[in-house]
Amino acid sequence: MLVDSHCHLDRLDLGAHGGSLEAALDAARARGVGHFLCIGVSADNAAAVRALAERHADVDCSVGVHPLDVEPDAVPALGWLLGELAHPRVVAIGETGLDYHYQPESAALQQQAFRLHLEAARLTGKPLIVHTRAARADTLDLLREAALPQAGVLHCFTEDWEMARAALDLGFYISLSGIVTFRNAEALREVARRVPADRLLVETDAPWLAPVPHRGKPNLPQYVREVAEFLAELRGIPFETLAEQTTGNFRRLFPLARVGR
Predict the structure, then answer these.
(1) Based on CB atoms within 10 Å of each CB, which residue in 22, 33, 48, 259 is the most buried?
(2) For 2-253, which CATH class?
(3) Residues forming a β-bridge with 128
(4) How many C-beta neighbours within 10 Å does residue 250 have?
(5) Which stretch is the leader sequence (predicted)?
(6) Which band of pLDDT confidence, cut at 50, 70 and 90, is reported for residue 73?
(7) Within a 10 A sphere around the Cβ of 49, how many other Cβ atoms?
């Protein structure tokens, strides 16, 4: 069984499945995907991802505010976040983090919001889903500052081995998406070869970043199989072994998720 550890089910392009989310999920299930983590990115979509988790036994969700969704007059309140995290199907916090690639001018605001999510993680013990782009030093500094006793994950990892190793040293997991299959991603493939077997996750980040051979098309949860097959070949292990390892890692990182229940 595979788990798509990071997808945005409320934002999928469902054209290939006649506009039906259920058909899209069934297509993934038919390819061995047994669980989905639907990710919150803003206060506006928190109710939507929660409703999807309530509706589907094999879907859990997270709640948080993406760094590119943080607005000067709408920094998430700790009380709001803690209230959302109290829901039993909300198994993680995020995605949160720092993205200076698109919005370097809002670095201070992003850091303020990231610290709030880190505090929520400290108070609830729920794992943290981290988005980081062009913000390596600040991301690691804030994670070290927080010194969370529980683990989290750097999702859709695109950095180098030095950052991966630093995150692993802090207890974090590394999640790889379809980017690892791209022709120009050799540096990321080197990271993929070196991540310990007990710290690796797979994801689609659908509807974005479809893996080869679907690159350029809308991404779907069913394509997490291509990511996993590629990684198994890259790491020189059977696909079934990688599926078992990554699913076990997901269960360990997200103990509240109802995987296989």
Answers:
(1) 33
(2) alpha beta
(3) 93, 152
(4) 26
(5) none
(6) confident
(7) 27
Q: Give bridge partners of residue 96 from the DSSP assignment.
A: 130
CA torsion angle 18 23 24 26 (round to 10): -160
pLDDT, tens only, 163-180:
999 999 999 999 999 999
Find all residues with CB under 8 Å of 218, minimum gap 6, and list them.
Answer: 12, 13, 15, 16, 206, 207, 210
pLDDT higher than threshold 90 for residue 261:
no
Q: CB neighbours (10 Å) of residue 209? A: 21
Of 63, 117, 113, 66, the residue nearest 88 (C-alpha):
63
Summarize the annotated binding site for a divalent metal cation as residue ranges.
Answer: 6, 8, 95, 131, 155, 205
> Mean pLDDT throughout 142-150?
96
Give the Cα separation of 190 and 81 in Å (integer): 36
Q: How confident is the model at residue 156 (pLDDT cuts 50, 70, 90)?
A: very high
* Cβ atoms of 243 and 224 closer than 8 Å: no
Decide if pLDDT at 255 tops 70.
yes
Q: With the CA atoms of 144, 148, 150 and 154 taken in that order, what torsion angle do they form, in degrees rounded to the nearest 10?
A: -40
What is the residue extent of each domain of the chain?
Answer: 2-253
Positions at the binding site:
6, 8, 95, 131, 155, 205
φ, ψ (nearest 5 deg) of residue 259: -75, 120
